[in-house]
Design brief:
This protein is of the alpha/beta class and 746 residues long. The chain is built from 28 helices and 25 strands. The chain has an 8-stranded mixed β-sheet with strand order 16-15-13-11-10-9-24-25. The C terminus is likely disordered.
Length: 746
């Protein structure tokens, strides 16, 4: 008891100061992540807390070392080179669809992300299974700005993946995480499909049964966050439980005990999401704080939960859910005094405004764009959800005969979202932002909140919006260099040339799945061109140039035109085949001018000068009819050979405008019938680049290509080996970047 009293005494002495302890820990985390500009803030702790400065410095240094230790590469066992049978325990279910189940399983003491390519047997937490497959370490993305699944798993202490279609269940035991599955099964069997899908989303955190198109609309409108179980749900449900217990006459001590048990059960029921753990933990501490009369403030409780979360799992700070939950909660706590003085409508407007402004830096770090009209969407739709839809679902949960009424409400709500979607979907691209810019925006928001608390002036919020936009636009535009990027699109070609400050952006070919167009499911586009262009802050494409009609060069042109504003389309003068005509029709429907280029034509755009080359359009080999080109970018010269064969060497060289080039994008993915010794030695490149898939049935690149480059002593870079290859040019010099930066990560 003496030790407990001593602990309580020390804790009470820190009242109102726990938040500064959190600041010291966050400072250590940010400095580890190379935001060194914040180091002078250590002086603040010395000035503000001269006697306790050693404690805060210890917290700073301790968090620095703790996060550094957590980021050390793990010692992983050697993996078998073929599929084997593994004995696994199902820990958690991640997602379940009609074609796929994903789960976290334990194999030999390691957590593994398993993809099971069958809907049955249904996986349940607590099962023991025999699974046939090959353990693998996930690869790092080979396209800049693409979602890094490897890092996503690593931040959850998961280092292996396994894909399988063969699972045998050998045993099933108790698991607390099975509560969620059992309740979800009961909902599916008890309620109509639409009502059941929303009940699972709002009360269990499961969105598996929600329609994908509807979810996409919610995401575009910026209200998808409401469908993630959060602190709002905890506050709503604990309030309802408290009112019910009070009305039946239970004493406060029993009510508090039941609420604590309810919060703990809710954590397991919802799958233990980060926001629920935070909100439930704060609710439990608030009950204990009030019962024991400890006198801790909301900031203190928030800080204690943050510190415990970081100490127990330091990598959790990298998870988006953690960042959103804690940061938005902190901002709202900071503003609580002014929020209390507002009218109910004003309070709602202010909370939505603060939450949206707080979420922008974190959202942009992964999505690269924001919806400018999401604030209006949240003002209209979120109150409907919180005050009508969720209460109706809650009543239906206990009174199933209300199913028809609730189903009707949900249909009306989905129809309303579909109606508003075209009007409230105004996205603006800002590109990727670094951690330093994120921190700057966060500090700007806190400073604005501080001045608003002091002055209560509405124009302070307008100034905040203006400064946000200025910083984001400056970060996007201030790129004083040119880039020539050979994107890793597998067995295909896609080249992007970008002038300084986005003065001109040109895309030459788009890549695509070989032998098949994928207008309805442009997976290659979503995995390559789209994330790269979004992350680079590209809002429009000045020229889309398509060399010829091969699928692996043009199959993603329509998705590209539908996603980004294309100002001009350039095609070859060769005969137009149906697949190319489809692209031209799409361009005409969007009022995009279509131009035809041929031998000798030139194009200037920003600091880029293009010289088009083309052989006789009646060649026996159709590959020799494609549109090739040279580009000069402030003295950096490149030749893009597309699918030329060696038979066209002399005809192309007769049109060649340079004696020597810096970069040669070799022809036809390095096939043995292209890139002859004579042609390559004549253009005499400094570097050669081949765009080729890691796994292809053509044997590309050929041994002949390696022999030519080795004989001429020309370094050969390959997208199959190096990933995306980028030449960054500034002030007459250029540097080469590859993704992933460490080839050993591939």
């Amino acid at each position: 008891m003496l030790n407990l009293n001593l602990l309580l005494t020390h804790l009470k002495s820190m009242r109102q100061h726990f938040i500064y302890a959190v600041f010291a820990m966050i400072l250590g985390i940010l400095v580890y992540n190379q935001v060194f500009i914040l180091l002078p803030l250590l002086a603040f702790f010395y000035v503000r807390f001269p006697k306790r400065y050693p404690l805060f410095f210890l917290l700073f240094a301790g968090s620095f070392m703790w996060i550094r230790w957590a980021n050390l590469p793990p010692s992983l066992p050697d993996l078998p080179s073929e599929s084997t049978t593994h004995h696994a325990h199902v820990l958690r279910i991640r997602r379940r669809t009609d074609q796929l189940q994903t789960a976290i399983v334990a194999i030999n003491g390691h957590q593994v992300f398993m993809s099971f390519r069958n809907p049955y047997p249904r996986l349940i937490p607590g099962q023991t299974i025999d699974v046939v497959g090959q353990l693998a370490i996930p690869t790092a993305p080979t396209v800049p700005h693409r979602f890094n699944f490897r890092e996503f798993l690593r931040h959850q202490n998961i280092h292996f993946t396994l894909q399988t279609s063969d699972v045998i269940i050998t045993d099933t035991r108790f698991s607390p995480w099975r509560f969620q599955y059992d309740v979800a099964t009961w909902m599916r069997n008890t309620f109509p499909p639409l009502t059941a899908s929303y009940l699972q989303s709002f009360f269990l955190g499961l969105r598996d049964d929600l329609d994908e198109e509807v979810l996409s609309i919610y995401g575009d409108l910026g209200i998808l966050h409401v469908f993630a179980i959060s602190g709002v749900h905890v506050t709503l449900l604990t309030g309802i439980v408290r009112d019910v217990l009070k009305r039946i006459g239970l004493i406060d001590l029993i009510v508090d005990g039941v609420l604590i048990l309810f919060c703990m059960a809710f954590i397991f029921l919802t799958g233990g999401s980060i926001s629920i753990i935070r909100a439930s933990s704060m609710a439990i501490l608030a009950l204990i704080n009030r019962r024991l009369k400890l006198g801790f403030s909301t900031f203190d409780l928030f800080s204690i939960v943050f510190m415990l979360s970081f100490i127990l799992n330091p990598l959790v700070v990298y998870q988006r859910g953690f960042q959103f939950s804690y940061w938005i909660s902190f901002v709202l706590i900071c503003s609580r005094s002014s929020l209390r003085q507002l009218t109910p409508i004003g309070n709602r407007l202010a909370i939505v405004f603060l939450a949206r402004m707080a979420s922008i830096p974190i959202a942009l770090s992964s999505s690269y764009e924001i919806n400018l009209t999401s604030y209006v969407a949240n003002l209209i739709l979120v109150p409907l959800l919180m005050q009508l839809i969720i209460p109706a679902l809650l009543l239906t949960l206990f009174l199933p005969f209300l199913n028809p009424f609730t189903d009707f409400l949900l249909q009306i709500f989905e129809a309303l979202n579909g109606f508003l979607h075209p009007f409230l979907h105004l996205n603006i691209i800002f590109g990727s932002i670094g951690l330093s810019v994120i921190v700057l925006l966060m500090i700007l928001l806190l400073v604005s909140c501080y001045f608003y608390e002091k002055e209560k002036k509405w124009w302070i919020r307008l100034v905040l919006i203006g400064l946000y936009l200025i910083i984001l636009e400056a970060n996007r535009v201030w790129q004083p260099y040119s880039t020539l990027t050979f994107l890793d699109v597998g067995q295909g070609d896609a080249t992007i040339v970008r002038s300084p400050h986005h003065d001109c952006v040109i895309v030459f070919d788009t890549g695509g799945e070989v032998r098949r167009l994928r207008w309805t499911n442009p997976s290659i586009f979503h995995q390559t061109l789209e994330p790269y262009l979004l992350g680079a802050g590209v809002r429009h494409i000045d020229y889309l140039i398509l060399s010829h009609e091969s699928y692996d060069h043009i199959a993603e042109a329509i998705p590209l035109m539908r996603r980004f504003r294309v100002r001009n389309l350039i095609i070859s003068g060769a005969d137009i085949v149906p697949r190319l005509q489809t692209i031209i029709d799409e361009a005409n429907s969007q009022n995009i001018p279509v131009h035809t280029a041929g031998a000798g034509d030139q194009l200037s755009c920003g600091n880029q000068q293009y010289h088009f080359l083309q052989t006789d359009l009646h060649n026996v080999n159709p590959n020799d009819e494609n549109l090739t080109l040279t580009v000069n970018i402030d003295g950096l010269t490149a030749f893009i050979a597309v699918d030329l064969s060696s038979q066209a060497d002399h005809e192309i060289l007769a049109q060649f405008p340079y004696e020597q080039i810096d970069i040669f994008r070799v022809g036809h993915h390095g096939s043995r019938n292209s890139n002859s010794h004579f042609f390559t030695s004549t253009i005499n490149p400094t570097y050669a680049v081949v765009s080729v898939g890691r796994i292809n049935s053509y044997g590309h690149p050929s041994q002949e290509l390696f022999d030519v480059m080795e004989g001429l002593n020309i370094p050969l870079l390959s997208t199959a080996t190096h990933g995306t290859i980028q030449f960054k040019h500034q002030n007459g010099d250029y540097q080469i970047y590859i993704w992933p930066l460490d080839p050993s990560l591939k």
